[in-house]
Amino acid sequence: xxxxxxxxxxxxxxxxxxxxxxGLLARDAETQILYVGIRDGMEARLVPEAGLEFAGISGKGxxxxxxxxxxxxxxxxxxxxxxxxxxxxxxxxDLVVGxxxxxxxxxxxxxxxxxxxxxxxxxxxxxxxxxxxLARVVRRVMVTFSESTEHFGAKKKLELVGLPVRPxxxxxxxxxxxKHFKLRPDRLTLLVTGGSRGARTLxxxxxxxxxxxxxxxxxxxxxATGKTTYEETIEEFKRRGISWERSGWRILEYLKxxxxxxxxxxxxxxxxxxxxxxxxxxxxxxxxxxxxxYAAENHQEHNAQALVQAGAxxxxxxxxxxxxxxxxxxxxxxxxxxxxxxxxxAARTLAQPEALNKIVNLCRATAWH
Length: 369
What we know:
- The protein is of the alpha/beta class.
- It contains 14 helices and 13 strands.
- It has helices at residues 11-27, 43-49, 68-91, 104-113, 129-134, 174-180, 200-213, 230-240, 258-264, 274-283, 299-309, 323-334, 337-350, 355-367, and strands at residues 2-6, 32-38, 53-57, 95-98, 118-122, 140-143, 158-160, 188-193, 219-224, 249-252, 267-270, 287-289, 313-315.
- A seven-stranded parallel sheet has the order 3-2-1-4-5-6-7, sandwiched between helices. A six-stranded parallel sheet has the order 10-9-8-11-12-13, with helices on both faces.
């Protein structure tokens, strides 16, 4: 089987596509995969690093306001359609799968016009505009959240599959996870992260929380500030007179060992990207979510609300976030073990541990239908 994958702009679109590629190859090592992305996009680096063949095309997302740049981008879009047509003729895919982002537009649309079997995967509760438009021409649309179905017109095309997570998520024991960070497995542990780039408002609020946690010697913290905001956060500790180098606190620039961190965490505090939430659901961790306010179409708030409605999370808007507000939410959770357990169970009910298997099955069925 020959599969063309496309998705880009952010890791939220790229990593699910890479997971699908790995799943297809694991099922059949003879599968041939070509990943199509923007020539200078993040995917141009990540895809070859993952060992997959990459082909770049022109283009970038449309500006929010009409301007001369809009005309330039539209010109690039026509060029991308032409480049895609050429790639389709060269590769002859049996299936084209789009995971969102600008690049999915010309690739999936052109494939559909050539009557090549096409699939979409939507990661967020509020679908992006590209996927909403493409849903009209593709064979099937795979969704992560049931809430997103109301935003698509063609209900018969929709398949609730979830979001594939790394296979090691949920496979590490609490004891092994705690030992990895030199922490105690019998103590309540907070896991805090604003993503690889960090989150300034979250970091400043957590600094205020640490002032309260200094009185709780039995509560542990794993906190990834993000590389770009680590020094700034440390300076804020110094300014406030916070002694952060404690036996039960791990203040890090970047958290590369997420499977171990999730294994020993009792509460997650952070953003509401679809990939992060999918991992929380599989492991069953309650969360306090602070959606990134500048995400496209505010989709992180919709993601967070899906967990809140299920009883698996609490939400604080970024505009309302400060140390006292965040501490109030955390304090309310750590003082109610039964509520924490109930929220964890609710998170697990949302999980789709067989997401990748379902996606691979749909890919194969669509290609050969």
